[in-house]
Amino acid sequence: MRIISGLSNRYAHYISGYGSPASPAVRRLPPGAILLIALAIAFFPAPALSAAPIERHIHLDAKSFAYAPAVIAVNPGDRVTLELSSGDVVHGWYLDGYDLDLTAEPGQTARLTFTADRLGAFRFRCSVTCGPLHPFMTGKLVVGPNWLFWRAAGLSVLAALAGLMLVQPRPTHRQPR
């Protein structure tokens, strides 16, 4: 290993690429165990940890080609009452996957009640042509937890552990003093 001028031997191995090897506990996992863990993360059903259904009242402001809030999260089975108000021109609200439509006049509030009985993420968009940026007036309704994200995170951690198992420590050569 080359010693970079001005650095002590203690820090030179970090810069030259000889980081610390993986811990011995990680190296003892058989390769088949990694595959079994990956399959379990990817394919076992997600636990039902969602809360009991409740009544939700959500006020949605539509103005300047945007919804506030743009993302709405509810639990499966929740009875959702949506209040749509428009601050500038006539705006609409259409929820993909549920086929629900609502229209609000400026200064007025329109209401709609539905049960969030489908898991997943659903786009909502303005259903009334309201100006030049109308196509970009969108939002998202999320029903239930985001299990796809958590499964991806678990598989990423598992891939990192598998990578640590493959890293072999490089021998370090010390220069004589």
In short:
The chain is an alpha+beta fold. Helix content is 25%, strand content 30%.
- Gross CATH architecture of the domain at 55-145: Sandwich
Q: Averaging pLDDT over every residue, what do you get?
A: 78
- Quickly name the level 1 CATH class of the domain at 55-145: Mainly Beta
Gross geometry: elongated
Helix vs. strand class? alpha+beta
Fraction in beta strands: 25-35%
CATH topology of the domain at 55-145: Immunoglobulin-like
From N to C, what is the helix and strand string? HHHEEEEEEEEEH
How many extended strands?
9
- Helix content bin: 10-25%
Strand order of the largest sheet: 3-9-8-5-6
State the fourth-level CATH superfamily of the domain at 55-145. Cupredoxins -  blue copper proteins
Question: Could you explain the architecture of this structure?
Answer:
The protein has 177 residues and is an alpha+beta fold. It has a domain at 55-145: Immunoglobulin-like (Sandwich). Helices cover 25% and strands 30% of the residues. It has 4 helices and 9 strands. It has helices spanning 9-15, 24-27, 31-43, 147-166; strands at residues 55-63, 66-68, 71-74, 79-86, 91-95, 100-104, 109-115, 120-125, 138-143. Strands 3-9-8-5-6 form a 5-stranded mixed β-sheet, with no helix packed on it. Strands 2-1-4-7 form a 4-stranded mixed β-sheet, with no helix packed on it. Helix 3 runs antiparallel to helix 4. The two termini are 14 Å apart. 13% of the residues are buried.
What is the fold's blueprint, element by element?
Layout: H1 9-15, H2 24-27, H3 31-43, E1 55-63, E2 66-68, E3 71-74, E4 79-86, E5 91-95, E6 100-104, E7 109-115, E8 120-125, E9 138-143, H4 147-166
Parallel strand pairs: 1-4, 3-9
Antiparallel strand pairs: 1-2, 4-7, 5-6, 5-8, 8-9
